[in-house]
Amino acid sequence: LGNRKDMPELLSSALIFVLPSYYAEGVPKVILEASASGIAIITTDVPGCRDAIIPGETGLLVSTRDVSSLVDAMVKLLENRMLSNQMGKKGRVLMKSEFRDSDVVFRHYEIYQHLCRWKSNIADRYFIWYNDIVLMMIIINNSENILAFIFRNVWE
């Protein structure tokens, strides 16, 4: 399909959305977008993907690299439009209540605040300001384990 500028319209025309990822990733934005469009989701039981749905309520989880379970899930939702419509509606509600951009930013900010409260013998903190972006690095016990976070305009 290439680069599209009509994703809301394209997603809203789908009956189900399938993302059979087989590696751990962050929460795929495309799953969030499809759920927000009211589409039932089928995805694999890997970190990130499984975090974007409520199995059995907003979509179905299948094992990675298991073609037969993927096909079974697709047939189940395509043959039962009532179920797929219910899952899509619940997915839209979930997106509105749990995955709004402002809520996600706020939850990340709370994590950063928690990390900043660590005692100095546990972590050294470094803040680097660049325009409206803050890069916060926390070096735990002076080891090579560095956590770096970037966030924009969180102080507003």
Annotation keywords:
3-stranded antiparallel β-sheet; 3-stranded parallel β-sheet; 39% helix; 156 residues; disordered C terminus; alpha/beta
Structural class: alpha/beta
Q: What is the helix/strand order?
A: HEHEEHHHEEE
SS summary, helix count:
5
For the termini, the CA-CA separation is 39 Å
Morphology call:
globular
**Measured on Cα atoms, how large is the radius of gyration?**
19 Å
pLDDT averaged over residues: 78
Helix content: 25-40%
Question: Using DSSP, what is the number of strands?
Answer: 6
Percentage of β-strand residues: 15-25%
Pick out the low-confidence regions.
119-156
How many strands, which pairing sense, and closed or not: the largest β-sheet?
A: 3 strands, parallel
Q: Kindly report the spatial arrangement of strands forming the biggest sheet.
A: 1-2-3
Could you explain how this protein is built, in words?
This protein is an alpha/beta fold. Helix content is 39%, strand content 23%. It has helices spanning 7-12, 29-36, 67-79, 81-98, 101-116; strands spanning 16-19, 40-44, 59-62, 123-130, 133-140, 146-152. A three-stranded parallel β-sheet has the order 1-2-3, with helices on both faces. Strands 4-5-6 form a three-stranded antiparallel β-sheet, covered by helices on one side. Strand 5 and strand 6 (146-152) form a beta hairpin. The radius of gyration is 19 Å and the shape is globular. The two termini are 39 Å apart. The model is unreliable at 119-156 (pLDDT under 50).
